[in-house]
Amino acid sequence: MNSSVNVVAGLAVLALLLWRQTRKRSVREERRPVVLVVLLVLGILQLSTYLKVVPTSASVIALLAATLLLGAGFGAVRAWSVRIWREDGQLWRQGNWLTAALWLAGFGVHIGLDALFDGAAPGLGAGSILLYLAVSLGVQRLFVQSRATRLGRFA
Fold it and tell me: Reduced to 3 states, what is the DSSP secondary structure of residue 60?
């Protein structure tokens, strides 16, 4: 898969995530993370395809780790922008304009780093975009679930 196809796929997934996260949705602890797992599997497959083409070096691994940590950081920050409340005995969540802006900023930073470090790891951002989104979403999910659990106990 070439870089432009990867970026378009990443943008499509980002649009889906933005749509889902800015809608009012119930918080259920037993809900299975289907979207997250699918995204993670596709991200690993995408990255493995990239690593077959680009030689793995210490700089590639370091840049990949850095960008995934950055994605985790964006996920943690975004989690605090999600509103969680109780209504009719049930917990609800909904992201807002800040949640969406942080998603867009994180995506932009990830792709921007790709351009910045193109010499050391050409196409790494595009080759790891789905994994980046999965990590970022997973961390956000953990923090939102933690907040919701605390709120559920004290409400």
Answer: helix
What residues of the chain score a pLDDT lower than 50? none
Q: How far apart are CA 57 and CA 132, in angstroms?
A: 19
Residues recorded for the chain: 155
Q: Rounded to whole angstroms, how far apart are CA atoms 31 and 145?
A: 11
Range of the domain at 100: 3-154
Domain total of the chain: 1
Given a contact cutoff of 8 angstroms between Cβ atoms, the answer to whether 91 and 31 are in contact is: no
What's the pTM?
0.90
pLDDT digits (tens, 9 = 90+) for 77-114: 999 999 999 898 889 999 999 999 999 999 999 988 87
Q: Rounded to whole angstroms, how far apart are CA atoms 145 and 131?
A: 21
**Helix (H) or strand (E) run with residue 84 in it:** strand 83-87
Does residue 123 come out as left (phi exceeding 0), alpha (psi in the -120 to 50 range) or beta?
A: left
